[in-house]
Model the fold of this input.
Amino acid sequence: MKALSIQIQREFWEHRGLWMAPLLIAVVMLLAAAIFGHVNVSFGNAASHYDGPNPPPVAQFMALGWAVPFFLAAAIQGSAYLIDCLYAERRDRSILFWRSMPVTDARTVLVKLLVGLVLVPLGNFALAAATGLLGCAIMALRNHDVVVNGLSVVALWNLADWLQTQVIMLYGLLAAMLWYAPFAAYLMLVSVWARRSPYAWAFLPPLLLVVFEYMVFGTHYVSHIVNGGFGEFLHLAYGFQSADAAGDSGRYTLQLLTPAHLLASQRLCWGLAASAGMVVLAIRLRRYRDDS
Amino acid sequence: MTTIVEARDLSKRYGNFVALDHVNFTLQPGRIVGLIGRNGAGKTTVLKTILGLSSYQGSVQVLGMEPERDRNALMSDVCFIADSAVLPRWLTVAHAIDYVAGVHPRFDRKRADEVLATTSIRRGSRIGELSKGMITQLHLALILAIDARLLVLDEPTLGLDLIYRRQFYDTLLNDYFDKERTILLTTHQVEEVEHLLTDVLFIDRGRMLLDAATEDLAARFQQLTVAPDKIDAARALGPFYVRELFGRTIMLYENQAAAGLAALGDVSTPGIADLFVAKVQGSAS
Done:
């Protein structure tokens, strides 16, 4: 346990951007809330939709909107980290030092995968949730005088809505980790394999394959695999299409989540199998590569 | 006492290049063994097979384990410094200690602190800010604090000035070495380690030229500075190496009675560096 914790810390020592960038985003978001946070809310015609017993789900909008920059950062940083993590140690030759310690190659690779695929997104999520509440408080202070449909926007704040949205997002995040695991494993594989320019090796071959396939066969199978299928993922993970999802109350509830639907997806199963294969290959490459 | 390393028929090829050619050697506990060879002779390949970093043909047992298969278990008992520059530049000194303390079951943090206290290295410094000599001091402090049975050093003092080199070996001898531990080291600067080695292994073009205890060298090898009129007689005794220096002729013999040689000139024991040159050039001709 102590070893695992220090191994995880080591990744954040090396890749300081992993914790500095989210903090920077948090500070910028909070400052923006404080400086530009005075909103002029107008729901226009939609306002009637939220009349009466169903006030607009302001807390949901806030939670979602606040989290978006953090999620984008997590995706970009996680990818950049995974591309670099097994390449950097060979570039600076420190791999000989790491390998002189009693730490298995499997463990090293899995810890790095854990950091890039799981901990970085979770950390960003937690920071978004924590600072989001603070941001909401700042916005509430700045907008205590704004009135919608005769109600102060501050009165529209609803903690249950906010918490429910956090659960919906956390579920999405965990689901996305499974869905995007093959991309993470692929980036690690490139990282451990490339002798130089891992970024080029990560992006050019899939791109060339897509172009090649289209020009020669006129088909799109490769692009279907490499495009990430974000639309398909959302469609599988969340039941947006079902009538109750954003029910009569005009807010999303936990009924939106369709994990069974997602887990039954062939694409997910193939993706996980491919991830396992690529991780095993990455471990073997780190273990048996002899170019130091 | 168990044998620390036993290599039998060890071979390694890189494509067509034969890096090791059926090499045999053993390392016993409580020895300081110098693995001496030219660049590309196969020194690093030997070390890599011992450390389980490289595949090989033949058999190698390190502490009773097969290095390639049992590498992880082995790394608890074996430490190595591959080159003084391999500590990552972004790591701070304090974090380096934290890391090794976290992952190594045999690391004694107090010991590392003691060794570091004798240097001018500051905890908060990044390794990239340290001089090469200080990086080696830090690496040595980390290694000395690990209770390992075999320490492998590959050119540990390369690029260091004389003061750091001297300190490095002094620390190694005074604070680390004991009867239970074995040190295997390679270096170009044979003269500097000559007095501390208990054993020497000479390697050239993938083959072992010599595997001997330094205390046996005097009985086994003789250096004769030949009197000018005795050169033919000296040649007749079959020296394995002849060298002309400032008009004098020096010949090296193996297992030649010193008493017989004394009649032909001045007899002495060759130094390890001279012996190495003689062995390599003698085997080439």
